[in-house]
Amino acid sequence: MSIDEKTAAHVAKLARIRVDDARLPELAQEFNTILGFIEQLSEVDVEGVEPMVSVEPMRLKRRADLVTDGNQQAKVLSNAPDAREGFFAVPKVVE
Question: Which InterPro entries match (predicted)?
Answer without folding.
Answer: Asp/Glu-ADT_sf_sub_c, GatC
